[in-house]
Amino acid sequence: MSSAETKTLITSSHWGAMEVDVRDGQIVAARPFAGDANPPGIANILPEAVHHSSRVARPSIRRAWLERRDRSGRGDGDYVELPWDEALDITATEIARIRDTHGNEAIFGGSYGWSSAGRFHHAQSQVHRFLNAIGGYVKSFGSYSTGCAQSIMPHVFGISFLKYTYESQDSWQTIHDNTDTLVMFGGINPKNSQVSMGGITEHVTKDWFDRFAAKGMTRINIGPQRSDAPKGCDWIPCRPGSDTALMLALAYVLEEEGRTDYGFLNRYTVGFDRFRPYLIGDSDGQPKTPEWAEQHCGVPAEDIRALAQRMSETRTLITVAWSLQRGEHGEQPYWMSAVLAAMLGQIGLPGGGVGYGYGAIGSIGKAMNGPRGASLPQGENAVKTTIPVARVADMLLQPGEPYDFNGTRAPYPDIRLVYWAGGNPFHHHQDLNRLHRAWQQPETVIVNEPWWTATAQRADIVFPATTPYEREDIGRSDLDDYLFFMPQLIPPVGEARDDYEIFSGLARRLGVEDSFTEGRSSHAWLTHLYADLETSAQSLGVELPEFETLKSRNWVKLPIAETTPRPSFLSRFRNDPDGAPLATPSGRIEIFSETIDTFDYDDCPGHPIWLPPSEWPGSATAETPLHMVSPQPGDKLHSQLEAALADKTGARPETLVIHPDDAVERGLSAGDLVKVFNSRGACRARVAVSADITLGVVALPTGAWFGKPGEAIDPHGNPNVLTKDIGTSRLGQGCSAHTALVEVEKIG
Ligand SMILES: Nc1nc2c(c(=O)[nH]1)N[C@H]1C(S)=C(S)[C@@H](COP(=O)(O)OP(=O)(O)OC[C@H]3O[C@@H](n4cnc5c(=O)[nH]c(N)nc54)[C@H](O)[C@@H]3O)O[C@H]1N2
Ligand SMILES: Nc1nc2c(c(=O)[nH]1)N[C@H]1C(S)=C(S)[C@@H](COP(=O)(O)OP(=O)(O)OC[C@H]3O[C@@H](n4cnc5c(=O)[nH]c(N)nc54)[C@H](O)[C@@H]3O)O[C@H]1N2
Ligand SMILES: [Mo]
Predict the structure, then answer these.
(1) Can you give the pLDDT at residue 687?
(2) DSSP class per residue in 670-695
(3) Where is the Molybdopterin oxidoreductase domain (predicted)?
(4) What pTM was computed for the model?
(5) 401 CA distance to ligand 1 centroid (A)?
(6) Looking at the structure, do residues 354 and 435 belong to the same domain, yes or no?
(7) CATH code for position 452
């Protein structure tokens, strides 16, 4: 092969498969996979990102830490580059010191983050396996995506939330065939369905919506932005954080007009008698009428009435975006949506009831039953301490302080060492200035990262990690019907090493190499994991090619049929509530939960109630009159690829969407540079004016890299300098990113 020859290979990523052109050891171009009829617009920036000057070139140790173990000043940027062996020696000695002095309870390895696609080189699995091999670590529960739902929904339906979402709720086909009215709280977002964890090869959400429209299905998006649902859907503008009030009013109309399905409630639910006095106002003097709800959510009372009538007269599927539980009291709209669906009596019928997170990632709604497995085993964690994932800053700031979580009360552990691989907390966490203060507490912070992200810039030890394009892997996602051999496209950039190699080197120095590697090279692990996938495929009657064949073919489309209708635990329950009871304490859907009631939480009592968030349009002040939502970015995945995107002329700071009237009031026009601020922080943004956002609401997407410590204003537009770092409630303790009031002011 001549050195100037261009080779094109396929690889998989969270945002879809890509065709990548490689020449002279460089990625020179990338495009979405040609077999995808609705390709996402994310791939093209790959070459610039992979070869960006912000790649970490060599192992780097912060000078103050290296010379005097000084932990103050994280983020000062003064690093010493060291040869790999020396850096690994120093790191292993430090890990051993902390473990031997303070125990494994002093090591935090939650390491939340999406990392990259690829079954073996999954950074989070790698770091967990390594930390388990050295005696364990404090881990985290749940995700920023759905942490709150993961806590509340098992109380209601007796099933894990993710099992409900991925394995049980209706497929697109079933919705297409049966649903008349699709009521989408928070929309079903086309930009979000571009991605799926582990990969998504064919993007089908758009096609299904085209078919829904052709069929004449009524599709109603309820929320702050029209663009949260595909074009052509009806839009009911609604204030963020107020959905529970609207759902209660819909329930009220059903009750008032004799539309409640008591037959369903009596047979399949418990606790409506405890909830009803609240709904009609007997317990608190406030009937939850449409007129009452209008004051909170801004939706006209007559529209609420008409919607309730339509929902009770047609086959209605209520869908709820994950974003609704990513706010203070996020438990309430989730629980209330189930109660509303129960009152409609359609739970367990095809195309009826309630579903969560459609569109949040592109594979939800695909009813694939493909081979599973090929995950790196993480081993046993000898440490049992777990924190809710979004409570990381609280943990670092308040060691030993007790906190409530879903009926338990435990003290935060005293963390001395933090190890992060595959996540970017200085992108994903709320109130970043507070996280920055918390981050100064541990004695040592270690990060494996391909790029000098804001998190890497705040670590004492930074190991340069390869990207998926610099190593071989298996690409496979449970809800996809493709299988990839992800080839090594280019040599490691700089001195980057695979996470596996980094952890193998540390494990060797800490005397646990055998238990970490089990004597396998990366390649041996790939064939080992592939055998696991083959076994799973065989049990489904699906034939996989030999590993070496897959390697030479690069990818195959698997003969996996969609199962429609999908066997649902709720349809089984509907057919036979005594024979197939739910795994709740009552065996029924819990409208009132005795369990939650005994927790005695005023921020999440025994049945759903309207609890206004502390920051939302209803509590707007003269200083902070606007509610900021911070959605996922449409042009990338979180903070990934940002290095290259930020270089594009005019791309940064990020774009802030504002209503025309709010813009006029502030003398703003499209393209203006603004400061977005509140008492927690400030960032710059570029204005886009749009009538497709609710008055009083602004939207600033996540993902711009957070700047340097001490900057009064974040230059790139990271909304997390403004968001509030509180749990959703003592029950869920999830991320409350969508709860934030701000003001916007023109700069210059
Ligand atoms: N305001 C606000 N904040 C939010 C949200 C919101 O809605 N609003 N959403 C939240 C949600 S749902 C999520 S999921 C989080 C996402 O937050 P994260 O998952 O932390 O975001 P990513 O940018 O995907 O971070 C992944 C990091 O892993 C690195 N990486 C990639 N591949 C590898 C690898 O092979 N090895 C190593 N060592 N590193 C690798 C990437 O360079 C990147 O820095 O953000 C949360 N934050
Ligand atoms: N392109 C792209 N796609 C992604 C990601 C990405 O980074 N990039 N990230 C993925 C991840 S990790 C996740 S968890 C999912 C997240 O999926 P979601 O949580 O569904 O998505 P978000 O973009 O956070 O929010 C969607 C919309 O919800 C609306 N919203 C906010 N608060 C409220 C509220 O209180 N009520 C109502 N009715 N609406 C509200 C906002 O207008 C916002 O635009 O997206 C995934 N998809
Ligand atoms: Mo997420």
Answers:
(1) 98
(2) TT-EEEEEETTEEEEEEEEE-TTB-T
(3) 55-508
(4) 0.98
(5) 28
(6) no
(7) 3.40.50.740
